[in-house]
């Protein structure tokens, strides 16, 4: 019998249930997939707590890697036995499972050089990092970025990628231990936001100029400091809301703080085009396979421990990437 984590109401981690499920045969456009490893992402908590409303009951998780067991009618992009990985949004919900049916369209063939656990730890984070570094802004060597949650899964990848592009990286962290992790992965400077004024310290490090781009995955608690850290006509990239959603604000504030730009991108819009998705995947897989970017899996959980995994994630106890091992 296959196993899955499901939930029947939005709420705290305790709403997650570990259950037996029946997995049938794939229908048109579907495959039956046996998971080897499953990704744990902060976005999962948004589905669970209702920030991203979805019909309930439902499955949990949007990222995993595994082996195709069977294909349904009309599937041409994969065959039984293929090693694959995937990430997505509504179309891939249900990743917290040992086996499942899933549309074939989101599946990405996994290069032999990339292990299943690595894939589960990096597909969403890697594709997110890829569009942030290659699509959001025309970076040039010498640019400076402020990276919140620098010791997190995306943070560690972005830091390493930024160094490949010749950028200066200022990373924010919550502890000295996380600062060490961030510096080991490319951060030139770290700011412990639990005891330092982020915007003030950024101005000191940039001789009063500010940074070209801020990548802010924290949201409500960092929004103002992020704006105050930007140089004139700098770009604020809101990539998450770990501390809560950003309250409504008067766009005139962007003019007052230096004619700033602001964007709130979503991964789904950067991988909607299959050709662009393939290009981003090839680039990030290439960096990882060549050793230019290291994927740090610092937490491994059993699927039945999903409640504890979500607790750890939301209490910011984790660094790097977290996965469930099947």
UniProtKB/TrEMBL annotation:
SUPFAM superfamilies: GroES-like, NAD(P)-binding Rossmann-fold domains
Record's keyword terms, sorted: NADP, Oxidoreductase
Annotated signal sequence range: none
Example of a GO cellular component annotation carried by this entry: cytosol
Molecular function per GO: mRNA 3'-UTR AU-rich region binding; NADPH binding; quinone reductase (NADPH) activity; zinc ion binding
Keyword Oxidoreductase: yes
SMART domains the record matches: PKS_ER
Pfam families named in the record: ADH_N, ADH_zinc_N
Domain of life of the source: Bacteria
Residue span(s) of domain Enoyl reductase (ER): 11-324
PANTHER family hit by this protein: QUINONE OXIDOREDUCTASE PIG3-RELATED (PTHR48106), QUINONE OXIDOREDUCTASE-RELATED (PTHR48106:SF13)
Protein name: Quinone oxidoreductase
């Amino acid at each position: 019998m296959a196993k899955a984590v499901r939930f029947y109401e939005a709420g705290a981690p305790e709403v997650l249930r570990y259950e037996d499920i029946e997995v049938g045969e794939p229908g048109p456009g579907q495959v039956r997939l046996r998971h080897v490893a499953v990704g744990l992402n902060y976005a999962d908590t948004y589905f669970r707590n209702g920030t991203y409303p979805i019909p309930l009951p439902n499955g949990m998780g949007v990222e995993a890697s595994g082996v195709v067991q069977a294909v349904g009618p009309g599937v041409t992009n994969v065959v039984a036995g293929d090693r694959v990985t995937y990430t997505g949004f509504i179309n891939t919900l249900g990743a917290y499972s040992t086996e499942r049916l899933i549309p074939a369209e989101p599946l990405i063939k996994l290069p032999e050089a990339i292990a299943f656990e690595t894939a589960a730890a990096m597909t969403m984070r890697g594709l997110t990092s890829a569009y942030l570094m290659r699509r959001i802004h025309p970076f040039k060597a010498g640019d400076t970025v402020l990276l919140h949650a620098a010791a997190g899964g995306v943070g560690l990848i972005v830091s390493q990628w930024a160094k490949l592009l010749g950028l200066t990286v200022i990373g924010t962290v919550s502890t000295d231990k996380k600062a060490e992790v961030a510096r080991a992965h490319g951060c030139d400077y770290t700011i412990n936001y639990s005891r330092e004024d982020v915007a003030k310290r950024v101005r000191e490090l940039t001789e009063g100029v500010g940074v070209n781009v801020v990548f802010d995955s924290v949201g409500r608690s960092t929004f103002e400091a992020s704006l105050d850290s930007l140089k004139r006509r700098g770009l604020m990239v809101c990539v998450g809301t770990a501390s809560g959603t950003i309250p409504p604000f008067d766009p005139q504030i962007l003019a007052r703080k230096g004619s700033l730009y602001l964007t709130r991108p979503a991964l789904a819009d950067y991988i909607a085009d299959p050709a662009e998705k393939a290009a981003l995947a090839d680039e990030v897989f290439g960096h990882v396979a060549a050793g230019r970017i290291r994927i740090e899996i610092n937490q491994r959980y059993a699927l039945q421990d999903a409640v504890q995994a979500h607790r750890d994630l939301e209490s910011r106890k984790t660094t790097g990437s977290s996965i469930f091992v099947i």
